[in-house]
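Issue: copy button drops trailing tokens. Both records pasted manually instead:
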Amino acid sequence: MEKVTQYIKTGNLLYCKNCGNTIASQQGYCLGCGSDALVTKEEFDSLSKTTSSASLIKLSKEEEISILKKEVEIAKLKKELNDIQNDNTTCSRTTYRLLAFFLGGLGIHEFYRGSTVSGILFLSCCWTGIPSLAAIVQIFTETKDGKGRLMS
């Protein structure tokens, strides 16, 4: 009780060691959980660092379920963000074939497919006419993009 009175007089607050509620009255116990285990802000902060928050805060079943639902939602959003960052889209086979037919000699279809090295090779040899012949063959043979996924 002396500890509570001392801290109230100096304007400092006490915290419940069990549930973390702020104690601003001279009652000497927590109104939230009824505990008389009161600590200063510094003591509470050091407890928070060394102990899990689950042991400091008592949650109802509904609150626990709500937290679990939010964690599942966060996990889904993280997966969706990861998919967006990995860019899981494939290129169109029709667009690839049209690019190979009209711009195959320059290797534009290879850049579209995601094969940058092949595209550079086609572009660097375009003056020979060989890339144009290779592009005609690729119109009928290529089925996968640069990452090995089937073109749609």
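Record 2 (pasted manually too):
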Amino acid sequence: MAADPLGPLNAAIDEWKSALLNGEGDKTRAVDSLQEIIFTDDLVKKVGQPQIDAILKDFGQWADRNQQAKKSNGRSNDGRTGPIVIIYEWGETFDINKNLKTFMVGGMIGRNEISVFYGAPESGKSTVVIDLACCIATGKKYHGREVMQGPVLYVAAERAHTVRRRVIAWAQKYNDSNQNFPFALVDMDIDLRERKVHTKALIEAAERIFQETGKHVVWVIFDTLSRVLFGGDENSSKDMGRLVVNIAHLFRESGAHISLVHHSPLESLRLRGWGGINGAMDTTVRVEKTPDKVIIVEVDKASDMPEDIKPKFYFKIESENIGPEQTAGVIVPEKDYKAPEKPPKEKARGRKKNPKGKEPPGLMIAEKALTECMIAYGTLNNGNQNIPSGVRTVKKSVWKKKAISMEITDSDAERTQSEVFSKCFSWMRDNELIAAYEGLVWRVPESARRAEQQTQPEPSEPPEPPEPSDDLE
């Protein structure tokens, strides 16, 4: 006989009813716990959303009746005596010291919170996070700000070897006492979307660190969000909701501050993917690299922090020698940097005064990708009568691949990527910015002349892509 898929959920409901009757926990925490079971066991798929909604509604109504009974006469809805909950109103006895916000980094990042550090690819965000993590682990001030010293658990879901080298470089440059410090690196694939066992393993790892060091883990870092989502869709509220539930569970059980390292789209300074992720975070920290390679680190969202005192730092990445022909990037302050005034926006080149149709999303990326493809892979037409003589052409497939690699859309779905590119292609063709024939694309002569300054002489062979540098992230 097949097992009842709702068995674990019903058992958990019974346990929570018993706990609430005895005054342990609350409705919100109970529902969060039940949601974890629903996500982990994929119950919506197994029994359907209406049945799940009905179960949660019944439990919620029971919890409300139970709470109301306790307020009115100290008895629950089933007749059992329960504790009377006393809620202190303003003006009565209230210990404010037990409710003050404590900081992991003074005036910047709260102790009991969840945060995200985000920025464009190669903006330096991972190096920034490693610098802060080493300060936490050693107790060294973070560029003038006090920190809460304690063990750090760094989940390097990608490029763990690079993280190791950067920690070594940081220790070589800043660890004056030459003492070991509690920086634990997890080098494995972690699935925080489906596998509850991985969340449990991290809780156990934090407990082992406590047993070895005598100190509770202060900070758990996931680098990056997309890797611990483990193939999930960043734009899906379902996939991202599961990740947030698992993160919240780890936060409650470990007592550590939890941080995600995440990307932003190339064309904007915002969190990539599902819009709800911003609301799920207590603090968001934006990392941006200027054209002259200055790293700007700015808190742009922080719970209960006035807008006019949100911290902002300016850094650069220096290469530190850590061995024969071995270097790694470390953060150093950039004290003399002055932010330039924002120049007025330039009018788009090659655009008509009255373009046909509304500009599609991703157009800026599509145009930039075409320019880069023309520079790297463009060939001159020397004989095809259907293509103007002397224009530089590039394969449409090469352009499309480049535009997708530059994140023409936030979505990882191939169908969505193709649709966004097709809309940009059609808009540019309809507005006579480009023309195409048998899979080849070229700029129309007028816009080609305007873009001439951005082109280079035709390379004899397509250049090899550069090797990724340790100093970029």
